[in-house]
From TrEMBL:
This is Polysaccharide biosynthesis protein. It holds the Pfam family Polysacc_synt. CDD domains: MATE_SpoVB_like. Keywords: Cell membrane, Membrane, Transmembrane, Transmembrane helix. The keyword Transmembrane applies. It is a multi-pass membrane protein. The chain crosses the membrane at residues 12-35, 47-69, 89-115, 127-147, 168-187, 193-217, 245-265, 297-317, 338-362, 374-395, 402-420, 426-446, 458-482, 494-514. It comes from the Bacteria. It is found in: Cell membrane. InterPro entries: PG_synth_SpoVB, Poly_Biosynth_Transport, Polysacc_synth.
Length: 540
């Protein structure tokens, strides 16, 4: 594969993933006024179990199949990858149907753990209905993941990118349209609307699968031609092939499970803990703010930082395997610095602008502001967990990811109810933060133990980033108070949007300018911002 084709394929796939994630963030803006806090909570009740099932069924499958097919194609054994693909289609179809049947069947068992009798709002029957509605997507998604991986193994990233975007678009269009029609046109029930909103995952998956089938028919002659070039010297059994595939996929399964498992703990404990301290009336509202609406905002800097940071992982892996310790340290330094450089100012800015930012995306809500302000710093840990887990995969110590995730979940489980009874909604955030903190520290320790990597340089750079962020914060706070005074701010959506844009621009401008003056940007991103240097020389 040529370097230019590799870069092109990587760019297409990255662009598809980013666009899909952006769509997944933006749709909540019209979704919130349609369904409100109660609808958001009900949506989460159905989606969290689905995410766990889908992670177990498909997390890592595209990358694992891609790695498997690519390996045997490089050996000229095209038939081996095709044999895995054909048997995999049958296996994924069976496991998809089985997963759907299991989730559909156990929905009445899950629901009572979610809803406390004292909680006012959604009922156990409502939760059962929504979980069952989303379960149908499990039939399609595993098969779709396998086909995506097969295309990627043949160095074709376009089908995956296109199917991801189409899947997300169709899902969002169906979700918003069905909720609008049920609630605003037919004046139907919220449960019906949310059931259709979760069923949208199945409709979107059909759209994504249709795109992949179209690509398959378009390229079937090329794939058939490759089979005629098969060397036919290797004949691994299906058992051996699946064993190899599971080894590739396992680390990605556990990383993909992290967020939904943390959310599942909240789903099973939050309402009951809130009811135990006399807050049953606002329990579901608080749950939806914490686990749905604020969480969508917190993930924004995580997505940005990990998209930059994870691009360096293949380079880190190559340097480690080849024994190039100098390059390994350099690339690892750069990865951690990029994550901290992007997430620290983003989460601090989000905490400062929590009030207008929550109002801009949803509605003015003092609880929403409080939750977002406390939840924002956790984004640093979310990003670091993803990156450190990827590094462990790169140095072939991925088994420790399972241990670190388990330790974090045990901390979350042991502290969650206690913290909620002491600090209400903020307690759930604190339990999540402590859990992820332990996981990240454990991962960093394992990286240091097996690579002898020292964090001294990264720590010094992180301190510099924190100093620059503090200076940025002063400018952002001053601008925030000035804007609130000028606009006579009272929580309106339009004023909130304007304030967020102005204050974010001022804060980002200060941070970017200081970073460029100190040479931090050029050291992290190379010549990507060389135009700034040229402009500076032209001025001088």
């Amino acid at each position: 594969m040529s370097a230019s084709k590799l870069l092109r394929g990587t760019f297409i796939l990255t662009a598809g993933v980013m666009l899909s994630r952006i769509l997944g963030l933006v749709y909540v803006i019209p979704f919130y006024p349609l369904v409100g806090e109660r609808g958001g909570a009900l949506y989460s009740y159905g989606y969290v179990p689905y995410q766990i099932f889908i992670s177990l069924a498909t997390a890592g499958v595209p990358l694992a199949v891609s790695k498997f097919v690519s390996k045997y194609n490089a050996l000229g054994e095209y038939g081996t990858g095709y044999r895995l693909f054909r048997s995999g289609l049958l296996l994924m179809t069976i496991t998809g149907i089985a997963a759907c049947a299991i989730l559909y069947t156990i929905a009445p068992w899950i629901a009572p753990f979610v809803i406390d009798k004292q909680v006012e709002g959604n009922s156990v029957a409502d939760v059962v209905t929504v979980i069952r509605a989303v379960s149908f997507a499990l039939i399609i998604v595993p098969v779709m993941s396998l086909i995506r991986g097969f295309f990627q193994g043949h160095e074709s990233m376009g089908p995956t990118a296109a199917s991801q975007v189409v899947e997300q678009l169709i899902r969002i269009i169906f979700l918003l349209a069905s909720c609008y029609i049920v609630l605003r046109v037919l004046h139907g029930s919220l449960v019906t609307a949310i059931s259709l909103a979760t069923f949208a995952a199945f409709i979107g998956a059909l759209g994504g699968l249709a795109i992949l089938i179209w690509y398959w028919w378009k390229r079937k002659e090329h794939l058939a031609e490759l089979l005629t070039q098969d060397r036919g010297q290797l004949h691994p059994s299906l058992k051996d092939m699946y064993k190899e595939l599971i080894m590739y996929a396992a680390p990605f399964v556990f990383v993909g499970l992290a967020t939904p498992l943390y959310q599942l703990i909240d789903q099973f404990t939050f309402n009951r803990a809130m009811a135990s301290i006399g807050l049953a009336k606002i329990s579901e509202e608080a749950y939806s703010i914490f686990n749905v609406w604020a969480q969508k905002l917190v993930i924004i800097p995580v997505t940005l930082a990990t998209s930059f940071g994870l691009t360096l992982i293949p380079t880190i892996t190559k340097a480690y395997i080849s024994g190039d310790r100098k390059s390994f340290r350099k690339y690892l330094n750069q990865t951690f610095q990029v994550v901290m450089f992007l997430t620290v100012p983003a989460v601090v800015g989000m905490a400062i602008l929590a009030e207008p930012m929550y109002a801009a995306f949803y509605n003015y809500d003092p609880l929403g502001e409080q939750v977002l302000r406390w939840y924002a710093p956790a984004a640093i840990l979310f990003a670091m967990f993803s990156v450190t887990a990827a590094v462990l995969q790169g140095i072939n110590q991925q088994r420790f990811t399972v241990i670190s995730l388990t330790l974090g979940l045990l901390v979350k489980l042991s502290l969650n109810t206690f913290f909620i009874t002491k600090f209400a909604t903020i307690g759930a955030i604190l339990a999540t933060t402590f859990g992820y903190f332990l996981s990240v520290v454990f991962n960093l320790f394992i990286i240091q133990k097996y690579t002898k990597y020292r964090y001294n340089f990264v720590i010094r750079r992180t301190i510099l980033v924190m100093i620059l962020t503090a200076i940025m914060s002063i400018g952002a706070v001053v601008m925030l108070h000035l804007c609130q005074w000028l606009f006579h701010y009272n929580g309106g959506k339009v004023e909130s949007v304007v304030i967020v844009i102005i204050c974010a621009a001022v804060g980002a401008g200060i941070y970017f300018l200081l970073s460029e003056r100190l040479g931090l940007i050029s050291s992290l991103f190379g010549n990507r911002f060389a135009f700034l240097q040229r402009k500076k020389k032209a001025v001088s």
